[in-house]
Amino acid sequence: MDHNPKSLFRLIEKDKLVRIIETFTKATDITIDINDDMGFPVVQHDYFYGFCRSIRSEESGLKRCIDSNAQLGFNTVEEGKSCMGKCHVGVMLMSVPIIVDGQFYGSITCGQMHLEKPQAQELTDMLHATADLNLDPEHLSQTFKEIQVISMDKCLAAGGLIQFVVSYIVELIYRAKIQEELSQEKLKAAEDARIIVELEHTLHKAELKNLQAQIKPHFLFNTLNTIISLVTLGENEKGLNTLFAVSNLLRRTIDQPEELVSLSEELHYIESYLLIQKNRFGTRLEVFIDVPDDLQTIQLPFLSLQPLVENACIHGLEPKEGIGHLWIKGCKVSNGVIISVIDDGVGMPYHYATIDLSRDQPIISGIGLRNVHKRLGLQFGKEYGVKLLPERGLTTVSLLVPQQED
């Protein structure tokens, strides 16, 4: 439960509080201020009259009035009951606390009254206290004496009445807010449960689709042809390394027990995949991996990075004549970690627009990137996912994931 008094008072319509103050003033000739826990008035109103209105017409006078109300309000908390005292110019004040479930939310200050007719010394003290306000002393003296004199019993009864009304309203708002927060918590729990179910279902489907996208029959067929060619050319060691790489890919893809893996593990998988590609490309493929050590432990869904590398090799670098370059880079940004796969191949069509992660728009390219984007969004939130940046000479495809604490 948020115990911020200001946030609670904001839930009460200001015109209703002003109406309460107006009605109370007309019924009792006692004007009140409803103050927050710091002593500041919750609403401004114009129901002070005569002497108090004159004092409050000056900025420094108003500040002293607010300070007097605040101090008396704090006294009510310390003593746990209504308190009486005089303001900075000698007018009687009574303050009653607004407390709900033991939490102090503010105070109600009743003012503009005397318990007995002021004497000459009190007039002198008042004029001395207000001398710097540049107000007409004669008018102040006259209006000071005109402030109503009420009995202690009436003062206490009036204070008790307004305390009951305002505290009752605050408590109603407080209870309603508790119920609202409980309802929101239940809705969030239900939504979290739904997301978890959807995530498990999507991850399962994504794993199957990734198996189809990464270990395709034609990919295995081409790899086997590469191995046969290497052996035929007498490059047995390369052929054996390629076979080991394919075996490692198959084993890790099928036996991977966890949905999340470290970036280091994902890069090991990528290295096995790139070994096969290097044997296919020969000297036409150069790879550079630049990922800082402190990013190696971040977690991401298994097979998140490999589809980016495969797209770069097959669609960007394979059609290119001459040597192609592939970079894998990692860096921290303000909202997480970016892992980028960059190639200087033939590029992608420009109608593959840059993905706007603030919108739930589909990725135009193939099934691999679409699955990765969806999985990252479900795992970490909609602000994370895949971003495409086609530009002249280089194509950059990046993963944005959160920066996780060790």
Describe the fold and architecture.
The protein has helices spanning 5-9, 14-28, 50-56, 59-79, 120-129, 137-146, 152-214, 217-232, 236-255, 263-281, 306-317, 367-380, and strands at residues 31-35, 83-86, 92-100, 103-113, 260-262, 285-290, 299-301, 324-333, 336-343, 385-391, 394-401. By secondary structure, the chain is an alpha+beta fold. The protein has 12 helices and 11 strands. A hairpin with a 2-residue loop joins strand 3 and strand 4 (103-113). The protein has a 5-stranded mixed sheet with strand order 6-8-9-11-10. The model is unreliable at 353-365 (pLDDT under 50).
Short note summarizing the structure:
With 406 residues, the protein is of the alpha+beta class. 52% of the residues lie in helices and 18% in strands.
Write the layout of secondary structure elements.
Layout: H1 5-9, H2 14-28, E1 31-35, H3 50-56, H4 59-79, E2 83-86, E3 92-100, E4 103-113, H5 120-129, H6 137-146, H7 152-214, H8 217-232, H9 236-255, E5 260-262, H10 263-281, E6 285-290, E7 299-301, H11 306-317, E8 324-333, E9 336-343, H12 367-380, E10 385-391, E11 394-401
Parallel strand pairs: 6-8
Antiparallel strand pairs: 1-4, 2-3, 3-4, 5-7, 8-9, 9-11, 10-11
Helix pairs in contact: 3-6, 7-12, 8-9, 9-10, 10-11
